[in-house]
Amino acid sequence: SQLLLLLPLFLAGACAQCPLPADLKTPNGTKICSQLYTDNSPYYDQCCGGSVLVVMSGEDQPYVPPAFNNKVSSLVVGQRCELTVWSGKAKTGKTRKFKPGAYPRLQEFKKGLFGNWDNSISAYFC
């Protein structure tokens, strides 16, 4: 059980390119709820790459912008935030909540019996 507590810390630290949850802020200091990225890598230090979708607190998107729909491969959730995602448009299909932390490789997170969350996000609320 102690290993489970340390695992998110290890993953957050292991992915050098993923920002820390505490660092999710706009240039003027406004807190960002989450950042979604189109690219990841087998190497944790090269995760959180590609195009970036910035999600502000309270943002409710039943339809992810086309450039990001079913293309998100890694994400970071800011402190005191929670990101809820859906696999289908209009908040249908499978759903998952991501707590504060870095999630560099969404294929490591199960979606149902056989799937995973890599390239599977079509709607979100933060």
UniProtKB/TrEMBL annotation:
It comes from Varanus komodoensis. Residues 1-16 form the signal peptide. Keywords: Signal. GO terms for cellular component: secretory granule membrane. The keyword Hydrolase does not apply. PANTHER family: SYNCOLLIN. One of its GO terms (biological process) is exocytosis. The keyword Magnesium does not apply. It comes from the Eukaryota. This is Syncollin.
